[in-house]
Amino acid sequence: MKKSLLPVALAALFALPAHASEAETLDTLRQTTLNLIDALVDTGVLTREKADALVKAAEAKTAKAVARAKKDTTVRVQYVPESVKAEIRDQLKQEVLAQARSEGWATPNAIPEWTERIKIEGDLRVRYQNDRFPAGNTPIGGFAPGAIGNPAATNDDFPLGTRFPSGVDLDGNGFPNGNASDDVNRLRLRARLGVLAKINDSVSAGLRFTTGNVTDRVSTNQTLGSGFNKYSFLVDRAYIKIDPVEWASFTGGRVPNPWFATDLVWDEDLNFDGIAVNLRNVTPTATLRPFATAGWFPLRADNPPNADKQWLAGAQIGTEFDWNSSIKLRFGLAKYHYSRIEARTDNNYDALNGPLQGYGRYEHSSALRAKGNTLVQTNSAIDNTEAPIYGLASKFEPWVLTATADLAHFDPVHVLLSAEYVKNTGFDRGDIQRRTGLALTDGKDTAYHLRAAVGMPAVRLANDWQVFASYKYIGSDAVLDGFTDSDFGAGGTNLKGFVLGGSYGIYRDTAVGLRWYSAKNIQTMTYDPTAITAQRYEVDTLMMDMNVRF
Question: What span, in angstroms and rounded, lies between the C-alpha atoms of 52 and 88?
């Protein structure tokens, strides 16, 4: 068996006699060897104990060699050529690494190499939530008065248009499923666990699981109180990301929100099915760093003749701008296009035989509804027997302008400002009447959000803090109500009001938070002016959170 070179080389280097300039050469070689050992210790290949043992063994052999040399009066001069020195160094390095692997010299409990490419992250949140509905709200029965208490009600008994779908979704006894008057207290849990994997220098992947349910895409909360039953853990993200060059990335699957935006358009818990492309300036010294994002996301799979496919396409351009070391600005302009989601009167109905195949394909799925968007009945004009089938009255082609500012004049305390404005250019009352027969006289196509925060940019350490205030105005048909912030006004559009809140770090990655939302409707919640007027909907929400992350 080949004898390990490291102990032999150490002994030889310590034992070599030195004369004149050769002493300096050998001393350099000895020092190089010792430095190599120290480097192996620092990188975890050798433990300090193993290294010290090797040096002591070499010194012991050296002592014996010196003792023998003293008895020998012959003077010998050793010469080590530079090529030999280099060869010794290379051989030492390779043999030490090989011996460390074979004998397990690595630091005890060291993890395998592949785990260095895996990152696990997660968070837990326990929340107390109180939703308060003022006494002056319109009773839930006031949103579809002609159908209340009538399990056999047909579309003729319901309003032609509505902005409060839970007020017209009736149970088996003919009563609404929604709530506009009874306060609600809940204890809620959010648990998220994610895995990020670096496959190689150009490819990575992400997988995240979360609490929640399969019908609410904008909430990861699990309301506690199910008789101690277990809860579902759902796939929230699952994607592959490719970075062929430093300035471009391609992501596909169930991907994180790729857009620069506030929660006015996209709820913070919303993830996207589809593909996204991002281009960016990666020059760290550049004061102006433009970026661009584009994406295509299916909303409903093609299922002819019962349902047509629906999708979202979007593009955004923007830039980051460092005004100076204390002022950092960011701007973005986005255009989104929703395809085939608007309603039209469904004529696939026969007066004698009733609904034909595909009848109801213009319905806006109840799974996508929150409240606020103008919904209109799509039932055929000769259909007076079926339940109402509501679809989106407006098309959605929103332009979104977003801006943020990070002012660090009092670092580590920052002033964080953000603003967002939305204009839905797809909202057209004439087009709505041509497609659906609804002569809409109200409805709003704009929204805006202003927010100011003071404190640390992120509450991560003990004693970190942040307080904020914001104001929102969300017109009925400015954005899709199913994707906007699900906490403000209990979710949806046709709302205006404010949010106050703050958070404080009590330990590292452990924080408490408090938020207060106050919202009320902008326009009527049910569109049937001949029968219903002056509807009122208000809600105040208190949230108290305990958050931990890892």
Answer: 20
CA 366 to chain centre: 25
Dist. CA 305–CA 361, nearest whole Å: 8
How far is CA 18 from its chain centroid?
Answer: 66
Tens-digit pLDDT profile for residues 248-273: 999 999 999 999 999 999 999 999 99
DSSP-assigned letter for residue 3: P
Q: For the whole model, what pTM was predicted?
A: 0.80
Rounded CA separation 212/523 (Å) = 31
What residue ranges of the chain are covered by domains with CATH 2.40.160?
117-549
Closest CA to 512 of 448, 450, 457, 467: 467
Rounded Cα distance, 318 and 324, in Å: 19
Architecture of the domain defined by 117-549: Beta Barrel (2.40)
Helices (H), 305-367: none
Residue corresponding to tokens 């919640």: 525
Dihedral sign (CA 484, 485, 488, 489): positive
* Closest residue by Cα to residue 364 from 208, 210, 466, 483: 483
